Amino acid sequence: MKRLITISIFLFICALFSDSSIGAKENYEWQNVVSSGKGCFPPNCKQGQFPMAIVPLVAFENKLWSVGDKSVWTSPDGINWSSQPKTDWGERYGMAFVFFAGKIWMLGGMKTWDDFRNDVWSSGDGTNWKQETSKAAWSPRRGHGVLVFKNKMWLLGGAVSSGRRNETPRQFRNDIWFSENGVDWTQATANAPWSKRGGHISLVFDNKIWVIGGGKNRDVWTSDDGKNWTQITDEAAWSERQGNGGLVFDRKIWIFGGMEKNDVWFSTDGANWQTALAQSPWSARTARQSIVFDNKLWLFSGKTGREDSWSGDVWTMNRKMH
Fold this sequence. Notes:
The protein is mainly β. The protein has helices spanning 2-18, 24-27; strands spanning 28-34, 39-40, 50-51, 57-58, 64-67, 71-75, 82-85, 96-100, 103-112, 115-123, 130-133, 145-149, 152-160, 171-179, 186-189, 201-205, 208-214, 217-223, 230-233, 245-249, 252-258, 261-267, 274-277, 290-293, 296-300, 314-319.
């Protein structure tokens, strides 16, 4: 009897360790599900290709949706894509999308370096769009964070226009706004304690809002109300990076890739970070075009060089079955 109890305890401890972060390198694996060259840049896309440089989101009918200026792409499985024309709002860059209250929402972005926007559009089908407001209460911007938290849309920080057509932004924001309908916006704070920034990771984890990195920052901040913030760490273990991915998957925060990088990191608390892979099987690249879908982390293409070079492949990361 004692022997059986001892064996049971041993097996229980082994099970705990096999499911812990200690075994992360063995517990997760990347798979190339779409070969290189299958991506496209709108409007030069053929049926079946997926649009590169667009961040997909999970929306209607639990499908993947990628919204461009003139077309919208959908996929039931992340591999097979179909496209159709869409209306309104036209060509722009640096805008943010979110699925909220049964609609896809598009917020802000830029037409040119001297023409930033603060309009808000929504769509109940991904094809037909309605302008909810031409000028939201928050200032025109790009590279802002947008998420859904406590049944509200939240907008965090971002870059503002330099006012010159040939000059990239030099000014940023750290204000935070929320809305229940996309039209009426309330400012949670004009100046969050984290520094002004754009291109940061904004996500929801452990029933809190998180702001991670952005620019040359490696700090991690969290808030349960959008107004009061706590700094979890001022310098995460991963190196400075731009264009990296950041998602919540399998009860962990993941930071991966970025310009000239292909490492993968995870954390269960935002303070302590571990390396899942020092070098992934996918080449060094930006990784913003990523999403959690179908119990996997998906990476769609990414910019692989300083020139306009994109890989056009698709990778997934999933937890190994033991």
